[in-house]
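Consider the tokenized backbone below.
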């Protein structure tokens, strides 16, 4: 009989009380007690019979796969970069039933033409400790039970690097569980993958590499480098898109989840006024609820050179705007990836991130303006510098230089 209290204590100990090193020592001591004890520990934690656990532990990679569980990325940009992964997964297993598990803020970006079902995890609402943690654990337990009751999963692939993502598919009873080690979660996987130390690998490639070893798939021979196609009508067939303006327009996306990647709003204002003075085309501001206040400030100070589309719908509802826009200017954000995926020419003012890892891949043309200060790329969400040195990777990129580069790349050519 499965002991819920034991599972909760195990989750707490391995996720929070013990970092990865302590977890390894714990498991190492378990190994020393003998193989039977190891099987007992895992079987108790997962609620599995010992015979079934031994079968999973010794399973070969080449078995018939009819049902696949994929834990999708948690961020808009990462979900967009997972498109090659889902595309090749479906090509590898055209008849398999694929379930994508995701958080609610990326549910609209799941590629409906490449998966059969989207299972959405509820959002925790408690903000204080330990209530938030307990609620998250209960969400994972309830979700794993629901998934387990729906079907038996032959294969699970975990794209996020978090402990909780691996715990979910482990508790859902997936037979083969593929993911990257780290975050104390290696014991939850029976097909662990590792990044090579100091390896400079794009995130889309890292996702694709998880398919290696499945039906002779070789990621290095199939990754296209840039997307050459994408059909939003097929992938997001239930989305009602926002209708673009009748007049010519360009798109600006001034928001980001990370302050280290947000070009100052006054810089966006200056750039927009320069573009309007030369071309008389307005900038359509896009973004969610967090960008509504930025849009209001730009509209107030912009001398009628803006159109406001912030907070008007889901992120996928912008796909027509991106397709019909003259071009897009964006921070390094999920909307930069979205606009490029939908075919827009995208000029990105790049902050603290590393374009080697997270550069958008198209099919829209991508232009990146970055400033290599001594701490760049830090890949932090919040700049660690203070005073005059704070955000110099962004503040040192001036609107006039961006305007000149946009002209140099021919983005304004037909609007002079």
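A designed sequence for it:
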């Amino acid at each position: 009989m499965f002991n819920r209290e034991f599972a909760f204590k195990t989750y707490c100990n391995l996720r929070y009380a013990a970092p990865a090193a302590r977890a390894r020592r714990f498991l190492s001591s378990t190994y020393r007690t003998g193989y039977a004890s190891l099987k007992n520990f895992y079987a108790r934690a997962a609620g599995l019979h010992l015979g079934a656990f031994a079968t999973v532990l010794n399973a070969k990679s080449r078995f018939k796969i009819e049902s696949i569980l994929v834990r999708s990325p948690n961020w808009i940009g990462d979900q967009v970069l997972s498109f090659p992964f889902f595309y090749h997964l479906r090509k590898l297993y055209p008849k398999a039933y694929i379930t994508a598990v995701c958080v609610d803020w990326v549910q609209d970006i799941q590629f409906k033409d490449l998966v059969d079902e989207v299972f959405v995890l509820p959002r925790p609402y408690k903000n204080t400790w330990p209530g938030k943690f307990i609620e998250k654990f209960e969400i994972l337990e309830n979700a794993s039970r629901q998934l387990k009751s729906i079907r038996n999963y032959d294969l699970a692939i975990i794209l996020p690097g978090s402990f909780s993502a691996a715990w979910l598919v482990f508790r859902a009873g997936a037979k083969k569980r593929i993911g990257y080690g780290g975050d104390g979660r290696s014991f939850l996987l029976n097909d662990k993958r590792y990044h090579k130390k100091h390896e400079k690998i794009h995130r889309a490639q890292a996702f694709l590499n998880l398919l290696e070893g499945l039906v002779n798939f070789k990621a290095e021979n199939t990754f296209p480098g840039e997307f050459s196609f994408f059909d939003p009508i097929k992938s997001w067939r239930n989305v009602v898109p926002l209708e673009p303006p009748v007049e010519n327009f360009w798109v600006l996306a001034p928001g980001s989840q990370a302050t280290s990647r947000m070009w100052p709003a006054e810089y966006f204002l200056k750039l927009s006024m320069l573009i309007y003075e030369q071309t008389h085309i307005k900038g359509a501001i896009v973004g969610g609820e967090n960008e509504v206040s930025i849009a209001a400030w730009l509209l107030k100070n912009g001398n009628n050179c803006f159109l406001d589309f912030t907070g008007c719908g889901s992120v996928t509802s912008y796909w027509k705007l991106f397709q019909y826009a003259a071009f897009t200017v964006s921070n390094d954000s999920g909307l930069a990836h979205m606009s490029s995926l939908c075919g827009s020419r995208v000029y990105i003012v790049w902050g603290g991130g590393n374009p080697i890892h997270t550069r958008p891949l198209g099919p829209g043309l991508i232009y990146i303006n970055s400033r290599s200060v001594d701490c760049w790329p830090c890949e932090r969400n919040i700049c660690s510098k203070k005073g005059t040195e704070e955000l110099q990777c962004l503040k040192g990129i001036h609107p006039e230089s961006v305007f000149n580069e946009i002209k140099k790349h021919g983005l304004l050519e037909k609007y002079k």
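Residues 8 and 137 are 8 Å apart (CA to CA).
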